[in-house]
Amino acid sequence: MEVDRLGHCRGIVLLLDTNMILLLAGGEVSLARLEQVLEMPFVPLVPSSVMEELRSLSSRHEARVPRRALELVQVMGAKVVETRGSADDSLVELAMNLKSKCRVVVATSDRELRSRLKLMGIPTLYYRAARGDVELEWSPL
Fold this sequence. Notes:
By secondary structure, the chain is of the alpha/beta class. It has one domain: 5'-nuclease (Rossmann fold). It contains 6 helices and 6 strands. It has helices at residues 18-26, 31-38, 48-58, 64-75, 87-99, 111-119; strands spanning 12-16, 42-47, 79-81, 103-107, 124-128, 133-137. It is globular. The chain starts with 11 loop residues before the first strand and ends with a strand.
């Protein structure tokens, strides 16, 4: 992550949830489209708890997409951040910790998680199935 002389991040930090990584790996969403919606390059971060969920899913029979998702995390150069607890709690904690230094967006289609993040003033990028596209939700309180 690039940091300026005041210790603030350059660009956007995009925290990725399991479901968004699966959508990327399945081809429903592209990295280029995420960048287009965000209107600038981003630095992808993945909590270790999300990686654990992907590993668990990939160990099942006929789990091509989760295996591809694990490879995609490596290919896109996402930084895996060590976390504890559930994936949702890890995403909230990371977003809150980075919020003061970086422009943070959480990419998730989990409605409950999106609601939690909205209450904390953290924007979300989510997949809208009806349109087959991603949307940025940002409502400052």
